[in-house]
Amino acid sequence: MKICLGYPSLDDPRGFHQVGQNRQAQVFSAPAFIYPYIPAMAATLLKRAGHEILWLDGPAEGLTWAQQLQQLETFQPDLLAWEVKTPSVIGTWGKVDAVKQALPRCATVLMGDHVTALPQESLDRCAVDIALTGGDYDFGLVEIAKRLSAGESVRGVFHQPTTGDLKTLPVVDRQLTKWRLYGYERGSGNYKYLPGTHSMAGGRDCWWRHDGGCTFCSWTNTFKNWRVGTVDQFMAEVESCASLGIRELFDDTGTFPIGAWLQDCCERLIKFNEGKRHGRCRVTIGCNMRPGALKQSEWNLLGRAGFRFILFGLESANHETLVRINKGQKEHDMETSARMAKGAGLEPHVTCMVGYPWESKEGAARTIRFTQELFARGWIDTLQATICIPYPGTALYRQCVEHGWLKYPPGDWNQWDMSKPVMTPGDNMSDDEVLAMTRGIYKSFVTPRFLVRKLISVRSRDDLKFLARGARLLWGHLTDFSGRRPQVAVH
Length: 491
Ligand code: SF4
Known about the structure:
Strand content: 15-25%
Largest sheet: 6 strands, parallel
Distance between the termini: 33 Å
Helix content: 25-40%
Number of strands: 16
CATH architecture of the largest domain: Alpha-Beta Barrel
Strand order of the largest sheet: 4-1-5-6-7-8
Bound molecules: iron/sulfur cluster
Radius of gyration: 22 Å
CATH superfamily of the largest domain: Aldolase class I
Shape: globular
């Protein structure tokens, strides 16, 4: 079969939808695209099964919709699969209809956390043939292609349970899936050493599934269970990256495996990197880690193994919020872990959110003060601030429906683009106040002391370029939360 995978160009005046590898969905004013590991693994497996593959990520390739449709008409796929998220789903329905009109014999698939939560909605609202549910799109698409090739009719909801054996997966085919599109300036802003790339070879998706995991996390619905890959697979991925000239690999497993797995992985990386630390090693590594998960000796091991960027979800500095979102961590865990990671020579990054319905203005201000303090002490290097958005399928979304916290009716998904709160914030804060809080978190670290420390820490051209990219990204994020984004009507 001829199979096309990727993302549709939505020609959306709001900007660039963050879809692949995003547990939260945002629309950025500046182009940014992260290597989407699971769809890329799907392309890899389908090629190995003998299918002809076209990787066509319209937005990352800078195509307008008309240009993308023209490429689809030239390729004439038998099967087309697109990943969508809540704020991109309405725009994508229109593109599915256009594909079905131009290529009526092409079977179309929509997949992702939004479709997993509400599969029938997409089937009702556009001409899509299959709503693929569950997070294992790779195993799911292989099965769908097998059945279509055998002449079976596959239509409606196709549920792929997340029981696929990760140990059977090969190294992802980065050439086939045009990894360079995502490896440089328009890739993740978190890479210091370009080119960089993402993987999810550690596991799917996150070992924090106590009581279902964090209530706001959209992948708690697509990956309800935890599976781990092997250290051999992770190392094969690292070696493949090195052979492509990739200098930094961020493994986006929801939370990186710990314990004996991590020990083994670090020892293998120390050998592979010849004991050199990030910046001088063959491939610098980054991962997501939960505050409170590791001891100082383990952080030191990560430092020796060439790890650099460690993404922590702080989410809030308030105990009540941490309990309500089922984060499973204490306020002091963040401080201790950031200090230990920094002490091991790593560059911790924290993500935090505002706009919780139960959190007062003072509570949100406490989160800003806390991140400021982490910066002032030099324990974190970078941060990301977002507005908490309740995605369909999450426990938070269910709570919103139950308590009447939603400001917009379900179905008006264009509003879920994080340009403003969709939940009524605590203390009845206005949209402008929440946006100002978000900008406040970004601005909180730009103190003269921080700037001096950053400037004197520049050792190489990579450091300098990373600093310049960081300044551009900061400007972009301040624009994203300025409240001046064009609005898009419901179709
Ligand atoms: S720690 Fe929470 S937010 Fe992070 S991946 Fe796991 S469930 Fe999602």
